[in-house]
Amino acid sequence: MPAPKDGPLLDGAAGRLVRPYTVSGGRTRPAVALDLLTLVISTGSAPDGPLGPEHGQVLGLCPAPTPVAEIAGRMGLPATVTKILLADLVQCGAIRVRPPSRFRDPTDQLLLEAVLDGLRRQL
Pfam families of this UniProt entry (predicted)? Predict the structure, then answer.
């Protein structure tokens, strides 16, 4: 699912109407340590307390395990801001996170070819 092109937070001509530091409430570090490859999945429970509209968008992006990097790309937000939003959702019990699998060798030929194919499809 591509990032939205228009709506209350985005304008097709002007771009993002809300600055990333506003989305994160001025915070620069997430309260929970997250890697770009950490898998995120919604728990289905309603978040405790008031959260911003971006939190709801994040919840809609992770019905199945989804990496932090993919969520950041779909949201059109910097990774650090996305991690802050995710940390908020972890703390209120709306999502679960799982560290990335470390069993794959990052220099594995099949893995590198799969990444290259994915990048080519995006062009």
Answer: DUF742
pTM above 0.90, yes or no: no
- E-state strands within 21-117: 39-42, 66-67, 95-98
At residue 24, the 3 state secondary structure works out as coil
Rounded Cα distance between 121 and 123, Å, is 6
4 belongs to a structural domain: no
Q: How many CB atoms lie within 10 A of CB 47?
A: 17
Helix, strand, coil percentages for the chain (3-state, nearest 5): 40, 10, 50
Query: What domain range includes position 72?
Result: 10-122
Q: Is 1 among the domain residues? A: no
Mean pLDDT by 10 residues, the chain (123 residues): 46 52 66 87 82 86 91 88 90 88 68 82 80
